[in-house]
Amino acid sequence: MKTSSIKKTSFIKSKVVALLCGVLFGTGLLVSGLADPAKVIGFLDVSRISNGTWDPSLMVVMTGALAVYMSLFYLVVKPNIRAGRAPVCDTQYHFPEKKTLDTHLILGAGLFGLGWGIVGICPGPAIVNIATLDMSLGLFVVAMLFGLYLGKLIKSTQPDMVKAG
């Protein structure tokens, strides 16, 4: 097989895997309720505990997701790394290089949490919900894209952040 043919096959394989992962992720968001802003706000608004209307079900979703991820990481990924095997669609595994908390991470996490708490939706569910053709979600996605652009612009003006992400 020619090198260009191998590269094309690898490219197609990576796109098919990405598509399947996206469909799996989106389906999980819909089935679990994480794509429903009212359900998310019902979980995030802990002031509802006192009157019995707080919805803890998303805690089960998040705990389940973490349990599945941790199991797969320790049973599949870590042994592959030890054996020197590459992931399915890349030549190496990619992990965060930065190991410390800094002002930018804390500020970014705070802004993300603030936005998620106010609107009840974050980027993944917003993209899934585009299919509903809801104008308010469309506006959210436009604002999100503007925020991503603004974040990149801010990072590009700060030399210590250029390599961080």
Based on helices, strands and strand pairing, what is the structural class?
Answer: mainly alpha
Which residues sit in consecutive blocks of at least 5 with pLDDT less than 50?
Answer: none
Alpha-carbon distance between the termini?
36 Å
Question: What is the H-and-E element order?
Answer: HHHHHH
Helix content: 55-70%
Shape: globular
Tell me the strand percentage band.
under 5%
The number of E-state strands comes to: 0
Number of helical regions: 6
Largest sheet: none
Radius of gyration: 19 Å
Average the pLDDT over all residues and give the rounded result: 87
Keywords: Membrane, Transmembrane, Transmembrane helix
Transmembrane segments: 59-77, 105-127, 133-151
InterPro entries: DUF6691
Pfam family, one: DUF6691
